[in-house]
Amino acid sequence: MIKVMDYLFVFLTIAALMSAFSIYLIYLVKKGTDGIGFLLVLYLSGSMVVMFASLSIFFSTPNPTTEAIALSLNSAYMIFGLIPILFKMNKKINVRKWYTVLIFSVTMAISEALMGETFYSILSKQLGNPLLGVQNYWYFGVMISEMTFTLIYSIFKGLDKNLRNFLLVSLPVMGISPVILADDEAFVTTTIWLNASLMIVATILIYESLYRDRLKKTQDTMTSLELMLVFTLMMGGVFFYYVTGSWYLFDFSMLAGMTWFIYRAIEGPSKIKGNYLRDGKWTFTFILVTFIMEWFMGGVLDFVTGTFSPGLQGFLSSLPLGFVNPASAYGLGALFDFLSIFGSVTGSTWFLLMMGTEMGMLAVFRIGQLKLKENKIRMLLMISAYAIYTIYLPSFSPLAPKLPYVPYMWSMGLGTLGPVSSQYLITGIIGTYVVSAILSFLFGSRQICSVTCTAPMMYQGTFYDSLKTFNRNSKLGRKTLTSKIRPWYKVIALSVWISLLTFAVLSFLDQDGILNVQIFGNDPTTFLYAFYFNFLWYVVFISIPFMGSYACVTQGWCSWGSFNQLFGGLGLFKLKVRDPSVCVKCESKECVNACPVGNTDLPGNFIKRGEFKSMRCVGIGDCAEACPYGNITFYDVRSWLKGKLK
């Protein structure tokens, strides 16, 4: 095989000329060229596609036949491509439409890929394809130069602020690519880490851009969704590579990403706009697409760190729950396999770490908006608890093997750290429930549902906290309003608890060798935990626009939450007001809209009793934060002790 150095000067010259020519065409389009001028730009951009496509054919097998094919293709394009332009020469036409600019952007991306394919054909004497053409540094050199010029010139011409930020952060995400040196494993690994980090930053930026403009009538919702789709395709491409060994999906994502970048830099943000607080269907779509991207990213990081083995068989053999014949158990095997694949990523350390970074930053931004010291401290404890309690202790601490024996370490109750074994049943499992019940009795269920659980990190950052409006805007969310426990809440919570206790008993009997009960080779409690917390919880979270915020609290899906809410409701915690008459005079009743679990009867209780006590109140404190009079206070064991010591 011919060495690259033999053609270095030739390749460098072609790439430089390609960059200069493409940049000039982009300049003409961005400047506003229309009519015959725009048709000529399309003609020239298309000529690069035809030229490199034909050259790749010739250089793959240099002979008179391929030479004739190359010459024929170029000649045909030169002649027939000019005919429609010549017919329009003396006419005033307007051909610059959104779709013609899109065609131009597509030809820019494809021509560069075909240039890479031509270089591949020269070196390998094989006919590749445009996707293979993406897998070299020549393609990325030209791509980055074009995208950089497009961005700078667009900013100079006056670019929408949000779009400018999106393009600024997406440029390095697309430019730092593992396929630049696809055969260098160390390079691939390093760039994946960099790419994932930059994509997390970009995702946070998108969240914050939407949140910052939430009070506007319209936002750049479609532009945000487009960029998230590009990121999803990119991460899906890397995941696909680790499973199949092929970069083709990632290569396609690069072409799609460059096309989007050039098109948006020229055309500006999408004219399709909306408001995420008013359009539940769009918000659901955005959250779903973002979650899919995050799922792929978590899976990729699991491959990079060795949690998963590469290749399809390696991946399936790495699944903690295992993989069975999809047709087994009358087709239930397929459902199990889906749960196993899905939950193996969502339950992994690197997925939780990645999600924690994103949601943690949104929580940090939220802290800056808080007024009350109590709420700021709680939010800081929440972030710290996620880092220590959810990530460090079970995954990186030298004490990790001993955690099952330690009370309060079964952070989500039964199944958190494994099966129900007699070895740690008393100290670890029952000890966790006892300690947590005492803490909830003393401080309220906020000690779990607003601090140590992973849910508050997900729900209480800037963007996701604002989604509590769907408690009132969504059909199902409205049914959860007020602190009254609905009958269907009891049905759901009871069903969850019956299943959990049943599986816990079976797990205990299985672990002690009394019975041999497994679910597709897994301990019953371990399986059920994976279903509830690695799958169902994320379904509930993604469905905020339809179910409302904190559905785990308001609808009874979380056994650990309902347990602590029960003892919190029986205990000391409650909300009190300094002066009930202030609530009578208050017209805005802002505490009602601020409550993320929809306790709309707050004012009535404050006026009648001077306090509010309900097992549904998990002490987030948004009501106290929103009160314009600073009238709402927290009451727990600290307040009780102060009263006794007076």
Question: How would you describe what is shown here?
Answer:
This protein is mainly alpha-helical and 646 residues long. It is built from 31 helices and three strands. Strands 2-1-3 form a three-stranded antiparallel beta sheet. The longest helix is centred in the first third of the chain and has 28 residues, at 185-212. The relative contact order is 0.07. The model has no long low-confidence stretch (mean pLDDT 94).
Characterize this entry briefly.
The protein has 646 residues and is mainly α. It has helices at residues 8-31, 36-60, 64-87, 98-124, 130-134, 137-157, 161-175, 185-212, 221-244, 248-267, 280-304, 312-318, 332-346, 349-367, 373-395, 425-443, 446-452, 454-459, 462-466, 470-473, 475-478, 487-511, 524-542, 544-547, 551-554, 559-570, 580-585, 590-594, 602-609, 622-626, 637-645, and strands spanning 574-577, 611-612, 632-635. The chain is built from 31 helices and three strands.
Notable traits:
646 residues, mainly alpha, three-stranded antiparallel beta sheet, 31 helices, 3 strands, 69% helix, globular, transport, metal-binding, 4Fe-4S, electron transport, transmembrane helix
What is the secondary structure topology, with strand pairs?
Elements: H1 8-31, H2 36-60, H3 64-87, H4 98-124, H5 130-134, H6 137-157, H7 161-175, H8 185-212, H9 221-244, H10 248-267, H11 280-304, H12 312-318, H13 332-346, H14 349-367, H15 373-395, H16 425-443, H17 446-452, H18 454-459, H19 462-466, H20 470-473, H21 475-478, H22 487-511, H23 524-542, H24 544-547, H25 551-554, H26 559-570, E1 574-577, H27 580-585, H28 590-594, H29 602-609, E2 611-612, H30 622-626, E3 632-635, H31 637-645
Antiparallel strand pairs: 1-2, 1-3
